């Protein structure tokens, strides 16, 4: 059985050129970037070049990039670091109900430290409004953290408009751009963000590496203490092979962004078109107007998400509920609950298809055909 991977929003396969780059570095450049001898300077050169590549991808300066172990650390560093550093200015934070748990759980941690967090609701497309942010913005608000594009339904938030709203306010603005990076053009100056999180494994790079953009005049409290790496903002010897792999993945993603957007949009139409032709009833979750190209979340009335996932897996197709799997059971998606309410059938019958490297039109057709068989089997 040829397996088909349609869960790229969860993680993505490493690009062959990224693997080659990392192998080359691991085999030939083992020095510590902090060492002053030639071995250290060779490693430092790789880190410096990678930093410039990361910065250029979001139109930032190289010294505004902090390499991390991934999106979760970048989110934690941005949120906790900004909140703790600016606590004397206030203790109010604004976020949304549909953030990744790396943001939600971090905000909940800060609530235990005495901070007050406002969790903005979303509409049925998963979107917040600028007016909603404006309505809860206070003089003592020190941080606004709102994701760029949602990992479960793909909805894109009005980040640049919110950035404009906050332009003359003391609050720092952070966006988790993990799911959008590599598929959506990001210009930190135009977006008006102070902090932005990225993860390598979502763009066909290695797991365990990412970066945080931190605007040059923004000061955050470090979470890790030790050496003076990353301009004293993140202690610890740099993951040189991982950083090199991330840089290669960024180069590849940046050069193929438009082509991928068009291809994945085509995949969406193929999958939905085949379902339509087969008479399958479904509803698309998320914003049709403001959505990521590679994420397609569909609700199938009369089905059960756990049964659907098992049946897809038995057919050799990897899809997702977009929900957290805990102790062997699937918890309701907090994103869908925020969009439709806890009593909605959609939180129990929605499946996420997400496209990426290696997928073909033939894969999408087969996935649609299998979906038709599975839905008929579960509803008749």
TrEMBL record:
<comment type="similarity">
    <text>Belongs to the class-V pyridoxal-phosphate-dependent aminotransferase family. NifS/IscS subfamily.</text>
</comment>
<dbReference type="GO" id="GO:0031071">
    <property type="term" value="F:cysteine desulfurase activity"/>
</dbReference>
<dbReference type="InterPro" id="IPR015422">
    <property type="entry name" value="PyrdxlP-dep_Trfase_small"/>
</dbReference>
<keyword id="KW-0408">Iron</keyword>
<dbReference type="InterPro" id="IPR015424">
    <property type="entry name" value="PyrdxlP-dep_Trfase"/>
</dbReference>
<dbReference type="InterPro" id="IPR000192">
    <property type="entry name" value="Aminotrans_V_dom"/>
</dbReference>
<keyword id="KW-0411">Iron-sulfur</keyword>
<keyword id="KW-0479">Metal-binding</keyword>
<keyword id="KW-0663">Pyridoxal phosphate</keyword>
<keyword id="KW-0808">Transferase</keyword>
<feature type="domain" description="Aminotransferase class V">
    <location>
        <begin position="4"/>
        <end position="364"/>
    </location>
</feature>
<protein>
    <recommendedName>
        <fullName>cysteine desulfurase</fullName>
        <ecNumber>2.8.1.7</ecNumber>
    </recommendedName>
</protein>
<dbReference type="InterPro" id="IPR020578">
    <property type="entry name" value="Aminotrans_V_PyrdxlP_BS"/>
</dbReference>
<dbReference type="InterPro" id="IPR016454">
    <property type="entry name" value="Cysteine_dSase"/>
</dbReference>
<dbReference type="InterPro" id="IPR015421">
    <property type="entry name" value="PyrdxlP-dep_Trfase_major"/>
</dbReference>
<dbReference type="GO" id="GO:0046872">
    <property type="term" value="F:metal ion binding"/>
</dbReference>
<dbReference type="GO" id="GO:0051536">
    <property type="term" value="F:iron-sulfur cluster binding"/>
</dbReference>
<dbReference type="Pfam" id="PF00266">
    <property type="entry name" value="Aminotran_5"/>
</dbReference>
